Amino acid sequence: MATPLTDSERRKQISVRGIAGLGDVAEIKKSFNRHLHFTLVKDRNVATPRDYYFALAHTVRDHLVGRWIRTQQYYYEKDPKRIHYLSLEFYMGRTLQNTMINLGLQNACDEAIYQLGLDLEELEDIEEDAGLGNGGLGRLAACFLDSMASLGLAAYGYGIRYEFGIFNQKISNGWQVEEADDWLRYGNPWEKARPEYMLPVHFYGRVEHTAQGAKWLDTQIVLAMPYDTPVPGYKNNTVNTMRLWSAKAPNDFNLQEFNVGDYIQAVLDRNLAENISRVLYPNDNFFEGKELRLKQEYFVVAATLQDIIRRFKSSKFGCRDPVRTSFETFPEKVAIQLNDTHPALAIPELMRILLDVEKLAWEKAWDVTVQTCAYTNHTVLPEALERWSVHMFEKLLPRHLEIIYEINRRHLDRISAMYPGDGDRLRRMSLIEEGDPKRINMAHLCVVGSHAVNGVARIHSEIVKNTVFKDFYDIEPEKFQNKTNGITPRRWLLLCNPGLADVIAEKIGEEFLTDLYQLKKLLNFIDDDTFIRDLAKVKQVRFCEIDENLVCRFSS
Fold first, then answer.
1. Which residue in 373, 335, 339 sits closest to 456, CA to CA?
2. In this structure, what are the phi and psi dihedrals at residue 224, rounded to the nearest 5 degrees?
3. What digits encode the pLDDT tens for the residues 424-437?
4. Which residue among 105, 122, 426, 449 is the one 20 to 30 A from 343 at the CA level?
5. Contact by Cβ (8 Å): 279, 184
6. How far apart, in whole angstroms, are the C-alpha atoms of residue 346 and residue 187?
């Protein structure tokens, strides 16, 4: 087992996480006790370890809030192009330690908690994982948010605030069992509810065409309630926002006509609307066309686009610029990144808003949409690609089905002009797949409706170009790119293995934490016996820590 540090060794330890200043330590202790008393209404006689965790989380959060507000003020003043990352999954994990590291508070908090007679690692272990993802796709989204904040980019993450995230796995009597991930059971100190920005999302209904344009009528409304979580960059005072939507039934949900019995049932039926954000679907390596899943996909897209357009219209220069036509600057100020096909409905939804609400001509609306949207492809497995039943679309999103049909008609007219008489090519490239049932190919919709398409590894991107979307690549090769998946070295090196980070920093400095190319400098020490010995020592200590942790976990 790893030899624990003595008190003097621990307090003398200096690492890339920063040196704890006495003023910082005193302030953190004061803030910790204030939150314990006034936020949690506890004292040391009755407080539990979970109370101490929440007191520390609120203390660290206090250091975020000012930076968070100033970052948004800066974006309003400068009006940069904003990036909106749409993903049905954000596997954020735990927030406390990552925030302390990015704000440079790790050592100060460690010292303050030590002086209070508590153990920082024990408090960190109490935090529930925000497991709102299944694996690579969701963790990539989380790493992108961290990276964009660390680069100082004006970026927003948009997703769903699932009440139950990825299920927990435990060993019981020698067998693996799954149980629900009730991660919000004790509350979430990092999020801020924004009921003032609650938005309506429409489902079902019918479409009526008039001289003034198409109208989507008699819809069922679900409200989207935003919860904002700060995303701090690494030691740069930038704090971006991840906005997750929670489904709420409107107060008049099914209450137009009722007697006492109907009223009780109507209140109970609210759960049907709120089920949209109840649970994260398990890993979808095999696509299943469930109506709830389609509702989730449209729910996040509809709420997000309303929010994006509201922010664009209220921006300092966006739609208020009297010199330029409304929405002329939209692609210059708004970027929408579709993380796989799950948010593909952003394309027909943006078209619906521009056509039916903003009254743009089709050609202009389409140009704005294509220049705004970009698509990341995550899978080339045929069984995992989304293909939604036309019948389900017709029932749930009738206006969007009309728009998708029109997109496909114009798309096939273009292909037909380029390849006269090539019916097989038209069939392969169509957004609508004939058959029983007739289905919509969401990946084709993403490719046609985006100005950029990328795979997530070099070999993957080559397969995308040469196989999966070869017909599309032949026509528009400039549209296809590769963006190899990366990870944030702050969480996956500095946080997970601080000993290794310290050894590296002693040799090449700390720039590798924001620029992984700096690690190439380690090649200069490939024959350095002292450096090799230090690495071996870190590896041995780390292995013992992992082994001890596994023994404790399985024995419990």
1. 339
2. -105, 115
3. 999 999 999 998 89
4. 426
5. no
6. 31
Q: What does the pLDDT read at residue 172?
A: 81
| Torsion of Cα atoms, 400 then 402 then 406 then 409, to 10° | 120
Quick one: CA dihedral 184, 268, 397, 304, positive or negative? negative
Q: Please check the confidence at residue 321 and state whether its pLDDT lies above 60.
A: no
What CA–CA distance (Å, rounded) separates 411 from 423? 14
Q: What are phi and psi of 40, to 5 degrees?
A: -100, -15
Q: Quick check: bond before 250 cis, omega within 30? A: no
Q: Report how far residue 241's alpha carbon sits from residue 157's, in angstroms, rounded to the nearest whole number.
A: 7
Whole-angstrom CA distances from 29 to 8, 63, 212, 344 are 20, 13, 63, 48
Q: Which residues contact 183 (CB under 8 A, 6 or more apart)?
A: 128, 129, 130, 131, 164, 165
Q: Distance between CA atoms of 324 and 439, rounded to whole angstroms? A: 40
DSSP 202: E
Selection from 481, 296, 484, 476 nearest residue 374 by Cα? 481
Tell me, rounded to whole angstroms, the distance of Cα 172 from its chain centroid.
32
| pLDDT tens digits, one per residue of 137-159 | 999 999 999 999 999 999 999 99
Decide if pLDDT at 214 tops 60.
yes
pTM score, whole prediction: 0.90
DSSP letter for each residue of 261-306: HHHHHHHHHHHHHHGGGTBPPPP-SS----HHHHHHHHHHHHHHHH
Residue 404 has pLDDT above 70, yes or no: yes
Q: At what angle do helices 96-103 and 136-150 cross, to 10 degrees?
A: 20
Query: Confidence band (pLDDT; 50, 70, 90) for 320?
Result: low
Contact assessment for residue 254 and residue 274, using Cβ atoms and an 8 Å cutoff: no
Mode of pairing for the β-strands spanning 82-86 and 155-160 = parallel
Task: State the average pLDDT over residues 442-450.
Answer: 98
In Å, how far are 134, 170, 178, 181 from 175, measured between CA atoms? 21, 8, 10, 18
Q: The tokens of 57 are what?
A: 């989380």
Q: What is the per-residue pLDDT for 173?
A: 84
pLDDT at 167 over 60: yes
Backbone torsions φ then ψ of 151, nearest 5 degrees = -85, -5
Helical pair 96-103 and 49-78, crossing angle rounded to 10 deg: 50
User: What's the alpha-carbon Rg for the chain, to the nearest Å?
Assistant: 26
Q: Under a CB-based contact definition with an 8 Å cutoff, are residues 146 and 490 in contact?
A: yes
Question: Two tokens at 510?
Answer: 């700390």
Measured at the CA of 61, the angle between CA 134 and CA 160, to 5 degrees, comes to 30
Tokens found for residue 488: 């944030």
Separation between Cα atoms, residue 32 and residue 60, nearest integer Å: 9
- Provide the residue type at 198 as one letter: M
Going by the DSSP 8-state scheme, the letter that residue 489 receives in this structure is H
d(C-alpha 496, C-alpha 102), whole Å: 14
pLDDT given for residue 318 in this prediction:
56
Q: Is the pLDDT of residue 356 over 90?
A: yes
What are 544's two structure tokens? 């013992």
